[in-house]
User: Fold this.
Amino acid sequence: MNVIDLLGLDFMHRALLAALFTGLAAPAIGTFLVQKRLALLGDGIGHIAVTGVALGLLTGTSPTWTAVIVAIIGAVVIEVIREQGHTNGDVALALLFYGGLAGGVLITGLDGQGASSLQSYLFGSVTSISANDVWFTLALAVVILVVTLGLLPQLFSVASDPEFAKAAGMRVRAYNILVAVLAAVTVTVAMRTVGLLLVSALMVVPVATSQQLARSFRTTLTGAMGVGVVAAVGGLLLSAALSVHATVAPGPTIVLLALTMFASTWPLGVWLRHRRRLRAPFPAVPPLDEASHSHEMTPEDHAHIHGHDCGHPAVRHGDHVDYVHDGHRHAPHGEHYDEH
Assistant:
């Protein structure tokens, strides 16, 4: 059977739909995780979702639903622990890593199935996804996209500067928990596409790729979603093409394609950042003459040079430099400034 014949099969249609929406949803919430410096949160939630899958297999219920519930509980717990400061964020993530995976393997052993029953959930099995799983994936992906894009200003403020957001009256804790819950839902959405052990890659690598070229948060978010779609759909098609000659799993192929896209854009990103650094914001000026040192003159009468750290124009008075910012002059290095 060739690739054209494979694309005409119903299971490939379902797989392509699941890959498309997963590629959109995973980088959308992953952008906020990267902004919060919690890139590994998705990996930790993916590990604890293994326990949820095992509980579903043990009880005979839907492993997807039990994975959603357990992943949300774990995400909320880790966010509360991280916020309260009872332990470091990386230590709390480690607890999720080891406890979730160990619990899943233990429960499947009690059920008599063994760890092999978790294979399709750990590394994905998008080609065996059912119609109900597709609709479930689409519904959760739509919820993630609507909430993420609808609350984009609030989530960005909380992720970028939580102290300022709190001072502005925003409910920072509620938004942080919301991001954690959305990350947990995203993990279960991508569970059948790339697998629980690889889901974090689809949440983070497209964001890192988009950051090579983008200069704003909104552009990064849009670019990451585009990269995610190309990686998810392209990886699925590539695995289908290679499966004619060998057994190629779609999940690892999707992740490797995303990493290839990052590697290909990295040199361009380095070049662009180098070009931006070469653009000096303030041109060099000749030394000031004696007349320009007069305290009778206003800051506008002086030639300006770029400050050392603040990035704002500076006015040179005698043997020290006064930095001008928003109409106010500041003396550097803790010196007292006398108004003239």
User: Anything to note?
Assistant: The longest helix spans residues 250-278. The two ends are 86 Å apart (CA to CA). The chain is about 65% helix and 5% strand. Residues 290-302, 320-340 have pLDDT under 50 and may be disordered.
